[in-house]
Amino acid sequence: MSQRSYALSTIDGYSGYGAEQGEKKLRAAIASTYYADLGIEEDDIFVSDGAKSDISRLQVLFGSTVTMAVQDPSYPAYVDSSVILGQTGQFQKDVEKFGNIEYMRCTPENGFFPDLSTVRRTDIIFFCSPNNPTGYAASREQLTKLVQFAKENGSIIVYDSAYAMYVSDDSPRSIFEIPGAKEVALEVSSFSKYAGFTGVRLGWTAIPKELLYSDGFPLAKDFNRIVCTCFNGASNIAQAGGLACVSDEGIKAMHEVVGFYKDNTDIIVDTFNSLGFKVYGGKNAPYVWVYFPGQSSWDVFSEILEKTHVVTTPGSGFGPGGEGFVRVSAFGHRENVLEACRRFKKLYK
Ligand SMILES: Cc1ncc(COP(=O)(O)O)c(C=O)c1O
Questions:
Q1: pLDDT at 2
Q2: Transmembrane segments in this chain: where (predicted)?
């Protein structure tokens, strides 16, 4: 990466505006690294400055008149970008929900996968697996049901696979592993949690050619327009870093990074288990979803903060379905994680 960045300061190596969709070599490398044999090609990949920005750009593409569904709880950017675009009704304080959004409840009772028979039809379905915050990865059977549901309803799935490299069982790492998904889904993903690129800012969106509106027009063509109009492409320095990530050496290094955080996750899971808590997630994601039945997640968060000086995340920040939980993140130095766990043990012993 540093050689490539240095080259940018030379007459020969300098480059100005690049292709808005990303450098050809990086698009090809992402397609072959993450979608080999899944029928996703180089020109289906749009390189971005991260999944969050792409979620908002997708909302600009969808516009204000669409309806959307989200897992409840889920990463807040889906609901918040929907509010900003004007897709929602007013916030309803009594149920802690925005009007016109379909909240798909994901709880321990339904194995953190929504009961689709009770879900209202929407134009768009945001679906994140492994999920932030519950840490739960949907199975092949469950995702097959989701794809079928989208097909029957003429819905588009925006599948967020930002944590796919944390999957350690046979859960799918991409929605495109599900037969027929290419006709109903697109996928946003990111190097943020694979390579510690949260500050570097690099991600991508994969949009299959088979994904068409009901009038037969390809969605990718519209997204291309949005990317060219609202973005202009990821930084060439960050893209050089991305190419390093998907080299043989880089892939090995990413697995090491992911493995390190997975070990942190095990330490946190073991700690809460030993204290008698019901703990979810953690297996396929760097997040541990700890259950505090009957308690307000903000109260639990405050107590932990005040008594241990450890920052967790109150579950209700991810939607009303997160009430009664806190999310504990494994993204930290080993020493800090061990120290936090010692303090949890002191607080709850
Ligand atoms: C589910 C999910 N999607 C997307 C993102 C954002 O990724 P990026 O840093 O690529 O914008 C996050 C970050 O926490 C996330 O949890």
A1: 63
A2: none
- Token pair of 249, please? 């050496």
pLDDT category at 8 given cuts 50, 70, 90 is confident
- Is the pTM higher than 0.85? yes
pLDDT score of 117 more than 60: yes
Q: What is the pLDDT of residues 43-52, one digit of tens each?
A: 999 999 999 9
**For ligand 1, is residue 160 a contact (CB within 6 Å)?**
yes
Residues 292 and 286: their CA atoms lie apart, in Å, by 19
Question: Cβ(59) to ligand 1 under 6 A?
Answer: no
Tell me the pLDDT of the chain averaged across its residues: 97
**Does 198 contact ligand 1 (Cβ within 6 A)?**
yes
